[in-house]
Design brief:
- This protein is an alpha+beta fold.
- The protein has a single domain, classed as GOLD domain (Jelly Rolls, Sandwich).
- 37% of the residues lie in helices and 28% in strands.
- Belongs to the EMP24/GP25L family.
Length: 242
């Protein structure tokens, strides 16, 4: 009876405790140090705001033989902040694969190992100003022997179907690269738009400040001139003296 009661208490404690940390109950989408893991799509296209002196990192899963690309561009900055952004890409083993320190850049390489590749965006150049960065990254495949459909592409086909298949893969690759170039052109257009708004705001406020200075200077000059020509009315008791 005591043994059955002990087993019952142990089972009750396990149920109340719940799953252990790191087991099936853990969050599968959380990366190291709370960074975000991305492996649900081959292409990503979005914008982020990097705060002053901040470091934002993302992790993207890739298989060996896949090709990775990253395009980024700084769209706007607050105040008189530096537009440069430090971007680094690391392999799953922690090796530095690419490093760029500029307002815009492109990265492309062939994945040598399977795992999560890290992309970090550092705004250490600015201690006070934040910036908005447009990102476009993902993986793509070239040739008939790469990518997720590698097993299907290795099937034996006759010559006619092989030619059609190769042509379709080449056409798909061309269309994909056209999309990449269009995305980078869209980044440039967005950056030009924000620069135009910034210049328009600068010209408006500077013109208003100059107008205020001109009006104030004219008013002060008028007061000085009036004081130069100030006269007093002479009376019997108050006559001008030599």
């Amino acid at each position: 009876m005591l043994r059955v009661l002990s087993y019952s208490l142990i089972l009750l404690l396990l149920v109340l405790q719940g799953p252990a940390h790191g087991g099936p109950g853990a969050n599968p989408g959380a990366g190291p140090s709370g960074q975000e893991l991305l492996w649900g799509s081959d292409q990503y296209d979005f914008a982020i705001v990097v705060q002053a002196s901040a470091l934002d990192c993302f992790w993207h899963h890739m298989h060996q033989g896949e090709k990775f690309y990253l395009n980024y561009m700084v769209q706007w900055v607050t105040g008189v902040a530096d537009r440069r952004l430090s971007v680094s890409v690391n392999s799953p083993a922690g090796l530095l694969l690419s490093m760029i320190d500029d307002a815009k850049g492109q990265v492309s390489f062939l994945a040598r190992e399977t795992g999560f590749y890290q992309m970090c965006f550092s705004n250490f150049h600015n201690r006070l100003g934040s910036m908005q960065v447009f990102l476009s990254f993902g993986v793509y495949y070239e040739g008939a022997g790469e990518g997720k459909e590698k097993e299907e592409k290795q099937k034996e086909l006759n010559d006619t179907l092989s030619i059609i298949q190769d042509s379709s893969y080449r056409l798909q690759a061309y269309v994909f690269h056209m999309g990449r170039y269009y995305s980078f052109a869209r980044m440039s257009k967005g950056a030009d738009y924000y620069l135009l708004l910034s210049n328009a705001s600068y010209v408006t406020w500077w013109s208003a400040a100059q107008s205020a200075v001109i009006i104030t200077a004219g008013y002060l000059q008028l007061l000085v001139l009036k004081r130069l020509f100030k006269t007093t009315t002479s009376t019997e008791s108050n006559k001008p003296r030599c």
